[in-house]
Amino acid sequence: MIYHASLWFHIIGITLLAGTTFVDFVLTRKFWAFYAKDQPAGMVARKLTEKLPLLVVAGIVLTLLSGIGMMTILHAVIGAMLWFRIKIILVVIVILNGIVVGRKLNGRLNKMLTTAGTGPANDQSLQQLKKNLQLFHITQLTIFFIIFFLSAFKFN
Q: pTM for this structure?
């Protein structure tokens, strides 16, 4: 019973992480579309992403605590399986990538948006930042897809 509860919370945690990443991806794309036409409307779209880090933290906590719970219940038997080792590495990569790269890119975007004036260099910087954010989101979503795939089709 405790194992199934841990598994349930684990699935919720990973889904929360992946879902939040997807929502951030969609809202960021909407931000760029609105910002190009109407900067105040773009800023409203950007404001919608402010609370997403709370959901990411909740997802990380649920995923890690429930994962540790399942490992404890199974007496680390699952830790010897190849699919699980790959999954753990990918989970660590997705968390570190989100913390290091995602926060850095979002911080740069927020800083660029608060600075006054949009000269040609600033427009070029925004375009590069847009590409980097898109690459970040696609990378994160691809890793989440692989994590879900490994969890569903366990192999040895």
A: 0.87
